[in-house]
Amino acid sequence: MRFEIGSDHRGYELKSRIISWLAERGHAVNDRGCDGVESCDYPDFGFGVARAVAASPGTQGILICSNGIGMSMAANKVPGVRAALCLTPAMASQARRHNDANVLVLGADNVPYVESLAIVSAWLGAAFEGGRHERRVRKLVEGESARLADATTKGRRGDSGMNQDCIFCKIASGAIPAEKVFEDDDVLGFRDIHPAAPTHVLLIPKAHIPTLNDLAPEHDRLLGRLVRAAGEVAAREGLAAGYRLVGNCGRGAGQEVFHIHFHLLGGRPLDWPPG
Ligand code: AMP
After folding, report:
1. 73 lines ligand 1 (CB under 6 A)
2. Residue 176 CA: which ligand 1 atom is closest?
3. Mean pLDDT per 10-residue run, the chain (275 residues)?
4. Which neighbouring-strand residues pair with 199?
5. Domains, the chain, with CATH or none
6. At a CB cut-off of 8 Å and minimum separation 6, what does 181 contact?
7. Cβ contact 95:75 at 8 Å
8. Could you give the maximum distance between any two Cα atoms of the chain, in Å?
9. What are phi and psi of 206, to 5 degrees?
10. Using a 6 Å cutoff on CB, does residue 211 contact ligand 1?
11. How many helices (H) and strands (E) does the chain have?
């Protein structure tokens, strides 16, 4: 089986031991941190593991913090994840068999090492039973879809999906003018105020997502739309010779506006590698 595993500093030691135990039994384990016992924040690792599990069906997650509560909260915010905090092997088995849980959460302070291995063993030995449980899990998934649809609608309306301090949200809502060259329900394209090429268009999602690292599986369709919109704009701009799509992620890469955007550049020779 393939595992994504993560912990905070309080779960680090147990995580290291569980990684060895799983590896000895032939399981593939990807450790997403943390990397030591120095104090850190559980959501940084909980989200990393949960997003990786959601993006890769069939992969299982293990998250460990002091009591498992914070990691459970973080993981269960990621669509597609059903994280279960298990204190006993029976709970682990049931979480797999009845809830089709895909992330096992352990509290290092609450389960001694040997008991934690029994919990992981029970998790490994159980599989989703389907039947009446299928109906219940489907209701969980439907509830999640309804929440996501609501969030997307709000984003389009510009209320909770909009960041009041974000200049690109203001352009999307019309509060700040821009020369728009493309618009649909989800995506906006407008000319960069400081063009770096004869054609320099910025393509943004209307919903506020700060960086490429904040993308979640539910954004896959939106990202596809964003990239296809770039192709449509390039065609309209007559960039038959080619164009470049650049996404700066983080300050180190030169990102200045923290609302995902792609620079569409064309109309001149574009050197490689870029500066
Ligand atoms: P980045 O450095 O990747 O975050 O790119 C941000 C881009 O936004 C820069 O190329 C800016 O020139 C551009 N920009 C900032 N404010 C505006 C605006 N009001 N209208 C159009 N482009 C803008």
Report:
1. no
2. 19
3. 97 97 97 96 94 88 98 93 97 98 97 95 96 90 71 50 84 91 95 92 94 89 96 96 95 90 95 84
4. 266
5. 2-124 (3.40.1400.10), 162-266 (3.30.428.10)
6. 189, 190, 191, 201, 233, 236, 237
7. no
8. 66
9. -70, -35
10. no
11. 8, 10
